[in-house]
Amino acid sequence: MGQDITLKEKSQRTSILKPVISKITTVFKQEKMFESLKKLGITVLSITLFIGLWHLGSKALYNKEANFTIAKALEDQGQAAADAVQACIASGDSSCQPNTLPSPSQVWTSLLALIDDYYIIKQDKIDDAIENAPLNAEIRQFNIDNAAQIAAGDIEARQEIEYTGRSSFLDIVVTSIKTVFAGFLLALFIAVPIGIIIGLSPSLRNAFNWFIQIFKPVSPVVWYLLVFMIVKTLYIGNSSDNSFVISFISVGLCAMWATLVNTAMGVASVDQDYINVAKVLKLGTFQKIFKVILPSSLPLIFTGLRITLSVAWMVLIAIELLAQSKGLGLFVWEEFNNGANDSNAKILVAMFVIGIIGFLLDRLMLTVQNAVSFNKVEGV
Amino acid sequence: MAYLELNNVCKTYDTDVDNTEVLSNINLSIEEGEFVAIVGFTGSGKTTLVNLINGLLKPTSGEVLFKGVPVQGTSHERGVVFQNYSLLPWLSVGQNVLMAVKEAFPNRGKAVWKRKAAHYIDMVGLTPAINKLPKELSGGMRQRVAVARALSMKPDMIIMDEPLGALDALTRGTLQDQILNIWGKDKRTALLITNDVDEGIYMADRIIPLRPGPNATLGPEFKIEIERPRDKTALNDNPTFKKIRNEIIEYLMDIGDERKSVSLTEYILPDVSPKHYVA
Ligand SMILES: Nc1ncnc2c1ncn2[C@@H]1O[C@H](COP(=O)(O)OP(=O)(O)O)[C@@H](O)[C@H]1O
Ligand SMILES: [Mg+2]
Asked: If you measure from the C-alpha of residue B10 to the centroid of ligand 1, how many angstroms do you get, rounded to a whole number?
């Protein structure tokens, strides 16, 4: 009976509170919505401002270069030539356009062109595959028929014919992302274990300090050269393309230092209280590392990994350019050398794509970090 | 032979620049089943004393004997409730306790571990919070988890370092009773460190003031012969309680005065002149 009364009382109380609560939540929701609307508004405003300034700036640069070209023609070849140049620039003919910072609309056009190009190349690939299908089938059949001899090494397996035409912008971006991921994983597997070992032992930390201090500031270009020297020798007698291997190893080695240092620091600076707990519970070494030290240093390890990922993405361009790996680095370099009318605009497209992917990768890491470590971090 | 015995224990931290002795000539003996309280000012060396007893620190000289054997490192026989809870923040309440149970009873299997952990969490009334993280708990709840964790290892002696220091008066009172209840059930030996004289008298069989450091040492002990269970409200009018309370406070105040006068006389400037004086 008593139970009944209390239950009733409770439900009554909630029913009285209900409208108040729902009102509070709606006010709260409205406020939140207003907050996010405001945030969105400010973002849109800043983007507009940025594009506006960029437009004005590129226009000023365009005019400066155009005026200079006309003045030069006037000085060198006289009025008629100057008029011809002016007319040519005004007509928009690509042969005489000033080569300077492209305007936002030019970059947009280039982006659309690159997307169109992607579909063209995709069609090319399909056509290519259809054309080569009978031949490839023959090759496959040959390989199957002679499987025994191939395995014995008497006959070499025949390679199927693959698409060898231009790569589309998407292929290029994918190559770059693959390189960064492979490099990042390499950094993870080298830097985290070493960081833990160094962090656990003060004497090892001292012994390794010179090594870290010397190699940490080495430039991506030098890393590339070092890796190139080594990989080239290891690949002797192997004709396959090693540019991907060289670039991801260089990227990994160049970017791993932040993770190494942060892991060592995190492990070395575990709260004495937690260590005392481990001692009082008499945890074994293995348990102590995996149950206490690692969880407590995860936030710092992840901070290191996020820096590593952004450094990897940043040095990628220089390293891909040197390694001639078919990624964004090489794309930027080739466009720069190409000097076509829309080259500069394409370089800027690549720049924005790199920036946006970098931003997304960082958000991804942040999400993983917040999912696995005990204290949440706000992204900056 | 006493259950726990400290003979002429001194402790100096190596890291100290001037190497001042934190604890000097500590002599203490606790019998099995006894509840002893040590009361002292903040910074007098209470935590240092606790860590010497639980084995986290080694005495610079002298010896700490537990059941007649010198203490070498930590042991599951001596459970510790740390001053600042020291719960692992990435583990839930249940996981924090489970971790201790697993270590204390390594060969029992998952079902037993879980049952034991749940039992001790229930004992401190935290079953509803079993899946919460420490940061989602109030100070009092965290302290109760720390107590549950220490008890779950079934230690022969439980050492509590200012377990209730950070709590408000109300929570403090409830937890005092909870700890006494648990202690009353199986009369394990208990050492309570506190900065609250009333708390010490209310809970302990014996209360010993710690003279403030540097060179902290234990003062005269006071036996509290008030029958258990003690009634907190009636205690205030109890003549024994009043007498002991006044004596201890007087003793601690005296030390305070002494310390002041000592520090006044200590800073007489030595007669120094520059070593390489160039005019
Ligand atoms: N790890 C340490 N290294 C050096 N000095 C310490 C260390 N821990 C405590 N001390 C010093 O020892 C004295 C006593 O500290 P502590 O035992 O924590 O006192 P209490 O617990 O009574 O507040 C303080 O003066 C403190 O500065
Ligand atoms: Mg203390």
From this structure: 13
